[in-house]
Amino acid sequence: MSRIELDQVVVRADTPGGPVPEVTVLQETTLDLTEQRIALIGPNGSGKSTLARLVNGLVEPTAGRVVVDGLDVSRKGREVRRRVGFVFTDPTAQLVMPTVAEDVGLSLRHHVKDRHDRAAAALAVLESYGLSELADRSVHTLSGGQRQLLALAGVLATDPAILVADEPTTLLDLRNAQKIGDLLFGLPQQLVLATHDLDLALRCDRAILIDEGTVVADGAPAGVVAHYRAMVG
Ligand SMILES: Nc1ncnc2c1ncn2[C@@H]1O[C@H](COP(=O)(O)OP(=O)(O)OP(=O)(O)O)[C@@H](O)[C@H]1O
């Protein structure tokens, strides 16, 4: 299993024009994440996405270090990003090619160099996710559920050691949310899942509750979810 370490990490953001020039988005946080499935839960704006984004360098720590499988994210960003797949709430930004098949092909560019082999590999990926019929469609004509599944297929095709998913089921209906949830929980990879879906959090091995940029509970999901429910009242 992989290991994600946060060592005294602080994240501050510049807020030009705001009442204060800088806000602390994440207070000093030290975590050692070795469990297979880790949920990040907490209210809107608490810092879940920030924590998730630190893992692949989308957010840089202002202080402290983030280390993924022994690699310092600030120094070895490229290597870390090859190990860490990331799926967003709204995958539109992740899907940039004219067709579905080309999009998966783009994900595979580092893994399969020959163009023809890559096209064949992309079709095989689509096939394995039941998306073959969409191969020639424009990604803009897909439903939200199809888009999320495609984004996930593209990321998983690169065989990351860790998958970070930032609210991947939020925009989906019940059936698609279940489908994506089942897929995520069937993966062999380490999973870091920022989510408002407490049922998904309860299926994890560890949950971390964040409030106003501070970890306020951390441990077995049942206890952490109960803490969150009590906090909201
Ligand atoms: N670059 C930035 N500049 C200013 N403020 C920021 C920046 N990044 C994050 N923030 C603020 O930090 C806080 C935490 O944001 P974050 O997106 O991590 O929260 P979240 O828990 O994922 O929220 P949600 O559940 O709404 O997605 C928010 O108040 C956000 O506005």
Give a topology summary.
Blueprint (H helix, E strand, L loop, with lengths): L3 E11 L7 E12 L3 E5 L6 H7 L8 E6 L2 E2 L4 H7 E4 L12 H8 L7 H14 L15 H13 L5 E5 L7 H12 L4 E5 L3 H5 L3 E6 L2 E6 L1 H12 L1
Parallel strand pairs: 3-8, 3-9, 6-7, 7-8
Antiparallel strand pairs: 1-2, 1-4, 4-5, 9-10
Adenosine-5'-triphosphate (ATP) binds next to strand 2 and helix 1.
Keyphrases for this structure?
233 residues, alpha/beta, Rossmann fold, six-stranded mixed beta sheet, 8 helices, 33% helix, 27% strand, binds adenosine-5'-triphosphate
How would you characterize the overall build of this protein?
By secondary structure, the chain is α/β, with parallel strands linked by helices. The protein has one domain (4-232): P-loop containing nucleotide triphosphate hydrolases (Rossmann fold, 3-Layer(aba) Sandwich). Helix content is 33%, strand content 27%. The chain has 8 helices and 10 strands. Strands 6-7-8-3-9-10 form a 6-stranded mixed sheet, sandwiched between helices. A 4-stranded antiparallel sheet has the order 2-1-4-5, covered by helices on one side. Helix 3 (100-107) crosses helix 4 (115-128) and helix 3 (100-107) packs parallel to helix 5 (144-156). The radius of gyration is 18 Å and the shape is globular. The mean pLDDT is 93. The protein binds adenosine-5'-triphosphate. Residues 13, 15, 23, 25, 42, 44-50 line the site of adenosine-5'-triphosphate. Residues 4-232 form the ABC transporter domain. InterPro entries: AAA+_ATPase (IPR003593), ABC_transporter-like_ATP-bd (IPR003439), ABC_transporter-like_CS (IPR017871), ABC_transpr_CbiO/EcfA_su (IPR015856), ECF_ABC_transporter_ATP-bd (IPR050095), P-loop_NTPase (IPR027417). Belongs to the ABC transporter superfamily.
